[in-house]
Amino acid sequence: MTLRRSGGALVAALLLSACAGGVIPPGAAGPVPSRPPHGAETATRPVPATPRPTLPVTPPSTVTPAETANAASTGITRGPDVANLIPPGERSRKALQAFRLSCPSLMRRTDQSGLTRGSDWNNACAAASSWPESSANEFFSRYFEAVQVGPGTAFVTGYYEPEIAGSRTRQPGYPVPIYRRPSNLIDVNLGLFSDSLKGKTIRGKVDGSKFVPFDDRSQIVSGSLADRGLELAWAADPVEFFFLQVQGSGRLLLPDGGVMRIGYDGQNGRDYTGIGKLMKDRGLIQAGSMQDIMAYLRAHPVEGAAIMNENKSFVFFRELTGAGPLGAMGVAVTPEATVAADPKYVPMGAPVLLSLDRAEPNGIWIAQDTGGAIKGANRFDSFWGAGSDARSIAGGMSARGSALILLPIGSAARLAQN
Questions:
Q1: Do both 76 and 180 map to the same domain?
Q2: Residue 200 falls inside a structural domain
Q3: Which of 5, 106, 162, 341, by CA, is between 20 and 30 Å from 394?
Q4: What angle do CA 168, 170, 171 make, to 5 degrees?
Q5: Are 287 and 347 found together in one domain?
Q6: Span 50-59, average pLDDT
Q7: 80 with 142, same domain?
Q8: pTM of the model
């Protein structure tokens, strides 16, 4: 995912993967954006809701290997009329805006899920271009039908675009280097060497006549890339930068009041080790939310530094300009309307209707992004934008319930004939 390549959901990424960054040295106190005091952050209290039950399904007669499975092979079940499913509120209007942005790419993409063809979306996209946002529910009801992929049991987490204090130049209060991608970081397509390795890649560097792993996180944090002109910018707070790396994109709030947006530009090729899982397994934290992890890192800087060094992964950045942040479809993701999904199970650009045990995410979203931890049917990651509210909601988002994919009218009948 362009916005956040190092993990899928924020909490899932912290449990399944981790990113680089240090911890605040004793006595260091750089400028930080407006937010609650260190350790005082809390996730937004969930608004409970009763999810719609999943639809009964008939298991497929044959089992498809995981590496080739997709939505079509998993099986779909037709859902109720869309008009009876959409809850009231602003989400449909935002989803219509996001759907419009997706249409040019949606109509020419090859759908990995096996559910649609590019031309299937022509009528809906043509109507969306001029459809009044005030009647967005009617648009989705008129042009789409609902299907459930597999058992339909959904799990939804959240992500956001972090805002942290940063500077384009090194100066007092901004000690943490944010690195560009090094020119000697090389991607190797192993499929070029052996058919048995098709689809596999490795990343490293050349050392003399050998290809070796690139520097790991502890080496980079200790200065292995220093003084090579790779410093893109400087962060004030290593803990905040750690979370920005988990997201893979964010905003640097500059000393002069300006904003510099940065986005993922590669990773050092080292395996992820989930610091959240390590911390939970060791009894250091309980719930495992972003807020829990951040509070512990701030309260135990020495131990926190050692824990983060157990993860060898490190993320590199580039400056972003124009609309953004961008999702996997190459279009700007829309706060409270974009979800990351697995393209093998959801057509990229398709509407998704969520009914969960937490009210905030319920309604229509558009699948415009992907993520390393977002795998399988009915697994989604909801995008909440930037700012303190987005940070608070995304940091504690963990909702379960049911999901339906909205396909162009007639798609389900065609799939039933195949």
A1: no
A2: yes
A3: 106
A4: 115
A5: no
A6: 92
A7: yes
A8: 0.79
Angle between helices 238-247 and 290-299 (to 10 degrees): 150
Collapsed DSSP state (helix, strand, coil) of residue 393: helix
Q: Catalogue the E-assigned strands of 168-324.
A: 176-179, 186-189, 201-207, 210-213, 231-235, 249-253, 259-267, 315-320
- CATH code for the domain in which residue 406 is found: 2.40.40.10
**pLDDT, tens digit, 9 for 90 and up, residues 193-218:** 998 988 889 999 999 999 999 999 99
- For residue 82, being part of any structural domain is answered with yes
Taking only the tens place, the pLDDT of each residue in 162-184 is: 999 999 999 999 999 999 999 99
Whether 219 and 292 map to the same domain: the answer is yes
Q: What is the pLDDT of residue 372?
A: 76
Q: Copy the structure tokens of residue 336.
A: 């409270």
Residue 334: alpha-carbon gap to chain centroid: 13
Nearest Cα to Cα of residue 397 among 352, 367, 366, 357: 357
Cβ pair 274, 373 in contact under 8 A: no
Residue 6's pLDDT is 34
- Lowest mean pLDDT: which of 224-233, 291-300, 352-361? 291-300
pLDDT tens digits for range 66-118: 878 999 999 999 999 999 999 988 899 999 999 999 999 999 989 999 999 99
Q: Domain tally for the chain?
A: 2
Q: Where does a domain end: 277, 298, 320?
A: 320
Q: Give yes or no for residue 127 having a pLDDT over 70.
A: yes
SS3 annotation, 119-142? HHHHHHHHHHCCCCHHHHHHHHHH
Nearest to 20 by CA among 391, 350, 381, 313: 313
